[in-house]
Amino acid sequence: MRQGPFAAAGSPASAVVPMGRHLYRKSTQQMRLTSRLVSFVSRRTLWSEGQVYAVVPEQLDILDGVRAAISIAFLLAGAICLDIPDLAFSVVAAFWTSLCDPFGGARSRFRVMAKFAILGAIVFALSSFGAHFGTVAATATLFTLVALCCLGRSYAPAFGPGPAQGSFISAIAVVIGVSTPRPFEGALQLGGCFLLGSTATILISTLIWPNHTNAPGRLLLVTIYSRLRTMLSALIDLDRSPVADSAAWLQYETLTRRAVRIAIERGRQIVARRLLGSKPHGHAVDVASRLLGNLIALGHLRRSGGAFSEDSVTLLRDLDELLREVIDCLDSGAMTSARINEDARSLHRAAEDQNRAFGRCIEGAAIALMSLGGTTSPEQRQDVLSTGLLATIFERPAMPSVVWHQALRVATAVTACHLVEGWLGVTLSYWGTIATLVVMQPALGNTWARVLERATGTLLGGLVAAGLLMNSPGDVAMALAIVPLAAAVIALRTVNYALFTIFLTPMFMLLSDLIRPADDLIFLRAVNESLGALFGVVASILIFPTKDRVAISDTLRTAVSANLSFASSVRRSRHGPHSAEIAKAQADAGVGSSRAEVAAMGLSLGNGAIASSDALNSVLLALRNVCGASAVFETLGDHDPQVDTQRADYYEAMSSVLEMQLRTWTLGDLPMPFPKSGDELDQAVADLALTVQAFIRAYGRGGRGYGGQ
């Protein structure tokens, strides 16, 4: 009976435990509690990836929460001890500045937070002063300043939550300012309090206690490799399951594969922004991307070639065990170990005895893991300022059409909510106006998702607030409750919005009661949140509504272009698998497909007809097939330079035609197919062309039919 390679290579007998046909080594160490928690949560929230309700446990940062709590505690103590109520606005500013902390180095963090501090103080004072002149002036001020602040927002596709944008938080400051009308001197005083709170947070975060923890990088890599192991385990289970149906495979190839790709791409962003371009961490993320390519190829082989042999399954389990060792090593703070290299070499040798296709996939995975220790140079710091301070603070933002539309939509909805709540005489009406501002997203489906998340968080947070307010605590008791709540909010701000809201709700209810005492806070919170959500949803439906096909068109064009570019790259490559060009093309293809799937999910939440259509689902499936066939060809393909060049040209021509047809929503002739008998990659490209044209036929303006087909 054949044994897995981990039984070889001189492993001591005491280090292995037999389990059926396979030999597993006992883990010699326990993962840290935080790593185990992050890995556990991450494996069970794959379905959430890519949406506004994503769960990103690896971005939990307790030290950030503690830093924010210190500045908030200092300012709260001043407000209570000095009996200066306006200092409570400094507390709010300190909290908002912490929300805008972008991670990374001290200089880049200072730049972003300073920009917010200046903008926030200006609009806070202006809105308060404008509201001093009455309802008409307050309404005009609110609409104008909210619209201007929203013009500074960006809506580029992103996976998972990130730090709040300063312009967005400044719009919230406008709402608070309008609800606090003051004459000129009083408005200046409020602006000064705002600057005081922001300055305190900036000094503590960038000068007194800068962030030097290694935890974000460690948790990032643990999450990525844990998801890779989840993907491999799912493949093994599907292969061995006698009842694995198309639905199970579809979930594997959509949710599981997308979750891994998104974790990898989010990892690249974190390495660049939060880890200052650390080369070891960046290299480990690149290795993970190569492993994903091999797993995609293995899944593609299994779907097209039938069940794996027993020996093949044994190697898959060996690879699974090797990934577990890598995760343990990463959790300890190291990138690799001699034991991992030894086991990877054993896996590589064992793969040579397998059939050509399967063996080369396993060999590729083993080689990737052996290269984990290939980059050991110091971190490359990118925290520099190439221009003066004022130039970096007042950067000129890009203004795509979605920003203009969303700014006007949000400003109109916020103003309408403000007027209606004022007419109804709702107490603490700025809560409802803020809710409208927060829930509105460019896509209706994402607005619904944000409403559901905020409702869940507010309900649970309201229960916490009810318990804290039950015995009518005094100012000191409320301050003692606000500080740890603020620490939790900041620590969770990029983990999950609903979880963030659970702690945000009682914190701001207590802070509001400290600034403006009121009765029935729980009831008022429920009324304001409901009205705010209602105005947000209605405005998203009625003001600049986005048509389904417009919402999906850009992402589909990008996905088609990226996947056909990947197919073309593997045809043209003369540098073997895993070249830098192919790695980038594969990453772009995976991200493009994931964003198309995410866009479809967002449309489905808004009851989009296109999102639930068979035509769109067929396009998404065809995109995944092109990516999978390209990954297989990268690993297994036999290159014929002349034929490959012709086929690459054909893919690029097809990409241009399909992009044009998706842009104009009209049908036309496709490039003439390649005359010689095609392989699996050719068939996948042809299927993609047919599904795209079927999609355009269903939802476009029609045309001349399937040219040449």
Automatic annotation (TrEMBL):
The chain crosses the membrane at residues 68-96, 116-146, 158-178, 190-209, 422-439, 497-515, 521-544. Keywords: Membrane, Transmembrane, Transmembrane helix. It is found in: Membrane. The keyword Membrane applies. InterPro entries: Memb_transporter_dom. It comes from the Bacteria. It is a multi-pass membrane protein. Its main location: membrane. Residues 419-538 form the Integral membrane bound transporter domain. This is FUSC family protein.
